[in-house]
Amino acid sequence: MRFKKIHQFLNTRWGYFTLLTFLFWLKTILVYFIDFHLGVKGMYQYFVLLINPIATTLLLLGLALYVKRGVPAYIFMTLIYIANTALLMFNVIYYREFTDFMTINVMLGYSTVSQGLSSSSISLLKPQDLIIVGDLILLAIGFITKFLKVDPRPVPKKQAVAMTSFSIFMLLFNIVLGEIDRPQLLTRTFDREYLVKYLGLDTFTVYDALKTAKNNHARNSAESSDLNKILKFNRKNYAKPNPKMFGIAKKKNVIIIHLESFQQFLINFKLNGKEVTPFLNSLYNGKDFYSFDNFFNQVGQGKTSDAENMMETSTFGLPQGSLFSALGSDNTFEGAPAILNQTQGYSSAVFHGNNGSFWNRDNVYKNLGYQYFFDASYFNTNSNNLTEYGMKDKLMFHDSVKYLEHMQQPFYVKFITLSNHFPFVIDQKNQSFEPANTDDSSVNNYFVTAHYLDQALQQFFDYLKKSGLYNNSVIVLYGDHYGISDTRNLKLAPLLGKSASTWNSFDDAQMQRVPLMIHIPNDHNGGVQHQYGGEIDFLPTLLHLLGINSEKYIQFGTDLFSPEHNQVVAFRNDNFVTPKYTVIGNTIYENQTGQIITHPSKEVKAEIAKDRKHVTEELALSDSLNNKNLLRYYVPKGFKPVDPKDFDYHNGYAKLLEQEQKLGNRSDSLWSENHDKTTIDKYNSDAPELQTTDKNDKNVSSADSAADKYLQSLSKGSIMSKVDAGEGISSSSSSK
Ligand code: GP9
Ligand code: MN
């Protein structure tokens, strides 16, 4: 009886609509769990995941409810269903290869960074894919056997409109749920994975299409006069190198260490009489580092990614969102790794314990010219080793050595830490600092994770010294942006000896200072530098230290060591700081007193007006450069535009070994210098996870096993014997 009723319902239009909606929901959810790794945590996220395919499915299939005639309505609805199934299927296959979702540019074949699906993709099909397409066959059988029949009665228009309205409501509800868990999900677009996790594949695809259309529009409006304005500004803005510093680190390795959420106030700061970061303090107070105490972060919503962009391209992030996410896949960059490679033959790599797709790094790094990207997939990511955003810092540094020691020198490498990230949690066994005692737990714990990072750095530096890298490398430490937000500064104020009641925007602006510390090998003339500057100034500074003139590149910052260095520091919201003043909107504060200048003199007014003009101009020109992708029209003399297709971040480890092998005794890696032996024994780490690593842990060997397979495919016996001899590719993986 019951079955009959259901059968009858299925043979109505609403019945067919319900059936297709249910089937699509079901297979999407199965795919979420079987094929995608969406990092879903907790009940709330599971709930959002379970409902996220519903709204768009109702909306799309609901379009067919407006078609009056029976057969066309069924055909239309089924075609929508097939198209949506195809989108799901292609994404599953694409994900197997790239651990990422297909963007519109990839689908249309316009993407310069990653290929779409090719004929070889067929080999990526798995039997379980029947879940995705099997129902189409069943539906066909249903109609052929007349189990399913076309209902000729049209759906009343009112009902169709009601369904459309309901699905739009659902969609908005879904977006709100996503935004609650991950504020600014749509404006900042951290990661495609997040968009799919919260909003579903369809919404992600539509969102991506809209974004792509907007970008294309901006690009198409580019004119050559736009570039001329920028070139003019660039010429005027250029600060020539300080002859005392130019080239003093020529051909040395460059090791960049990105200190997550690390603010300058932590340096030399004592909490309850104890230094939070004793190791960094020792570097800061010594002469081996040039340390800047008036260096500001200038990030916008793109946070870490904005900092990376400014540090390595000397152009600003965008006024909204993240440049890496929004434009990074397709823009032309003239980034540090490419410049160093082309001028002085540097190799390059990034080490970071999070998924490669976060902030779209897996694509952007190719455009920056990075040869290797060792992301989470290269590390042992068993849950014990992870904290909120990925591998704990102590482990990331330690486990990177395995790859680092095979890099050809000179190298330009970047380590991106992440343990000191909001909400600043680290497991009990890694806590060795008393938290603060305010009523805000993230403020309290900030000191605990900062201390952990400090210890991680100490252990890494100890290795750098023992392995000889310290004396052979420029080492740069910088904080990317604030850890304590403006609103939380009120809680922090008393710890800094200030009162929350008098705390104001001037104080917030001063808190944007972050460390910049530069070690130049065999130079002991460092110490604290007081000139004002920001992240945008780093690249020209570095290039000059390495003996590369920055003049021909389009850069918005200037060399911090140059006597001509411009000390006006722009924030992304047009506010700015100079050595004398802090300007927030129309309010001018005097830095020395923190007081508002209510009646500025003519001279002060003129000075501020000039600085303001500089700030608005550089931000606007940088935006025009990036939004219109103007660097594609500007090729500095001798610079070869980067072709992202030259880079593929799979099998990085094996590729390093292969190259080392090929170079033979011309190899300049640390491993080769160390008589073909590892240097990891020089690394002393107190990380509890390293003492207890389970040798049988399957994840341990994921990178090894990939390397292993790759090497086997090259069938170079000699490399294999080298790998087997000492590289620690576990026997379990090499037997695969
Ligand atoms: C994640 C990390 C954090 O990979 O770099 O980025 P953030 O949230 O600081 O921008
Ligand atoms: Mn960050």
TrEMBL record:
Bilayer topology annotation: Multi-pass membrane protein
Active site, renumbered: 304
Main localization (coarse): membrane
A family per Pfam: Sulfatase
SUPFAM superfamilies per the UniProt record, alphabetical: Alkaline phosphatase-like (SSF53649)
Pathway assignment: Cell wall biogenesis; lipoteichoic acid biosynthesis
Protein's UniProt name: LTA synthase family protein
Species this protein is from: Candidatus Ligilactobacillus excrementigallinarum
